[in-house]
Amino acid sequence: MKLRNLIDGLSYLELLNCDDLSLEIDGIAYNSKRVERNSVFICLPGEHVDGHEYAEEAVNNGAVACIVERFLNLDVPQIRVSSTEEIIAQVSSEYYGAPSTKINVIGVTGTNGKTTVTHLIQKLYEAFDKKCVMIGTLGYKFKSSENYHDSNHTTPQAPELQRLLYYVNERCFENVVMEVSSHSLVQHRVDYVDFNGAVLTNLTQDHLDFHITMENYFNAKARLFEDLVAGDFAVINADDEYAGRFLERISSTVSKYTYGIKNSADVIAKDVSFTDRGAKFTCVVDGKSYKVKLKMNGMFSVYNVLAALTTAKALGFDIKKSIETFETIDGVAGRFEIIVNKPTVIVDYAHTPDGLENVLKAAREITPKDGELICIFGCGGDRDTTKRPKMGAIAEKLADKVIVTSDNPRSENPQQIITDILAGFKSTTDVIVEPDREMAIKEAYKIANANDVILVAGKGHEDYQIIGDKTIHFDDREKVREIFIGG
Hints:
Layout: H1 3-7, E1 12-16, E2 27-29, E3 39-42, H2 55-60, E4 63-68, E5 78-81, H3 84-95, E6 104-109, H4 114-127, E7 132-136, E8 139-141, H5 158-170, E9 175-179, H6 182-186, E10 197-200, H7 208-211, H8 214-226, E11 233-237, H9 243-249, E12 255-260, E13 267-275, E14 278-285, E15 288-293, H10 299-315, H11 319-327, E16 337-340, E17 344-348, H12 353-365, E18 373-377, H13 387-398, E19 401-404, H14 414-422, E20 432-433, H15 437-447, E21 453-457, E22 464-467, E23 470-473, H16 476-484
Parallel strand pairs: 2-3, 3-4, 4-5, 6-9, 6-10, 7-9, 10-11, 11-12, 12-13, 17-21, 18-19, 18-21, 19-20
Antiparallel strand pairs: 1-5, 7-8, 13-14, 14-15, 16-17, 22-23
Helix pairs in contact: 3-5, 4-10, 4-11, 10-11, 12-13, 13-14, 15-16
């Protein structure tokens, strides 16, 4: 692609060294170390580093032009814009030929449940013999049966995302379902992605270290729905506190569908019950009742299935066949994943107050009357500190025994994080504090009886732990197997 074609339509302020716009461009980069020959380097000002400071390195590595917010002492063509963060998605989409306009893209957003819902929707498409790519926290995959390809973020940065969508189109896949994080919406990573549908799981406290207030958090999520146009659809959790406000943000030309358990909705679950084998409920769609028996457990799983089932309705898929598809699914790695039995040990990704509350309630449902519920959890460092005492209070209220440990402390002192958590307890007399996560799991092994249920919360599918500036291998599932069954 010629440089002139790439910047055509771009709202730039000034040009420098741009006498010849016929330069051939063979790539887009924002990391100077990953620049390929004949690339355009986009200088992104980040939280910790400024891409402008690495432009010279990028040029030395093969960049032939730069998009900047301030002109630099370089001889290559420079296009100055008001915000490189805001235009990187536009440039990426232009370079890859606006790939999202050629495929059907469904975005799933919310505090909890995004990963599971995207997996369910991918399975849904496959059940109706339609190809669908899933993009999310665990990476991306072209088939539900294959291994993940790493994407590094819940939602990849714009150049990687547009390249992936281009690749999806080249492989003749017609559908994509992707997790859309609030960060990606604020940071413009999903700008110029033509979403055909959007799904809201819920909105509860998380990422306030980034968004500062819940209002900012809501406004970030709402962007996904505000951008929908005539012919698109929106699926909203009617039981969520913010449901009405989301619905208000959606254009009247967009088809709206709701689901819920407590409130009136298009898709409703009634008579919900749980056993150690999964959840059961009656689903009512368009006045018709269907018996549902899931292998997945917990009220949050019911909501996740309702979200996916409502998406099926929006897509025009047969409801009975959709339910039958969901009934065969075991679950998602690290989401209420039962690792061992006698005692029952569950690993879950819950790392927010709402997430921890939901999973503890689900664990209580399968705890025998003569057994106790033991909760092991910590909180991440360099993240929202206000949720720490809230999670402590939830654990104290819903579990019989609590072991407070470390999650990913990052640059924070693990003991300070634990102190913040303990501030939420009415009494810490019976709380076990063990900063070493492996030792905390061993402590649970010592105190547990055969009929107890142990929840190891916070990390789920993650196979690492970030301590200081080091990332070490640590997988809760591996440690549980090693400690409880010796392998």
